[in-house]
Fold this sequence. Notes:
The chain is of the alpha+beta class. The protein has two domains: 3-124; 159-260, Immunoglobulin-like. The chain is 49% helix and 21% strand. The strands form two sheets. A four-stranded antiparallel beta sheet has the order 1-2-3-6, with helices on one face. Strands 5-4-7-8 form a four-stranded antiparallel beta sheet, with no helix packed on it. A hairpin with a 4-residue loop joins strand 2 and strand 3. The longest helix is centred in the middle third of the chain and has 69 residues, at 87-155. Mean pLDDT is 79; it is low at 82-88.
Amino acid sequence: xxxxxxxFLNSGLLEKYLLGxxxxxxxxxxESHISRYPEVQNAYNTLQFNLEVVAKSNAVEAPKSILNNxxxxxxxxxxxxxxxxxxxxxxxxxSIAASITALLFAATSYIxxxxxxxxxxxxxxxxxxxxxLRNDIDKHNEMxxxxxxxxxxxxxxxxxxxxxxxxxxAKNLKTVAYINAKEKTSMIDVVSLxxxxxxxCYQIWAELQGKMVNLGILDKADRKLRSIPYMEDxxxxxxxxxxxxxxxxxxxxxxxxxxxxx
Length: 262
């Protein structure tokens, strides 16, 4: 409903028109709006219908003898002009006022209902956003806690730091291993890894009693401090180039970095 139609419906001209109290200019304006705007036509029809319903519900059947009395009276006395009585019009006004009040009440109730529904939806959205925010905060706190634990391990006086650099085959390779024999923890920080063909990968090994034990694959995309299996009495660490997916046995001829642990 546009603003012009809404203003017209709230002006009361439609009710005055039904009562026959509009001026000629107002009558022309009302009839123009009724013919041009379906919303005005619907409101006009609704008011007419409500008035008819109210009129019928309040109608009282006249006694049959009244008609005969009127005819006898007309035969005996000359017809004189009578002033139109205002009782019906007064009652008519009250009926229109009651109808308009009912319509306004229904419209107001509908508006409040829609506003309450909208408010309830907005509240639900806020609740969901708060819930998501709490989850994000919990995850963030968990991540911070994990980082703090890792820092505590790195700053522990018992933690030994080993820098592993690449040989001629991988000059830009650099990783840092952190080993704490007291707490039995091992971590590695991948600083840089030279690019390899897609069918190859870097794999880190622990040298233990003359054997090479697999500690996992080093991924260039996974440049972060992460844990690796801790082993007792490890003599050294080695990094080799293996087929994609890793190998069960170290290819010593493809070694690109190694370091002796003390």
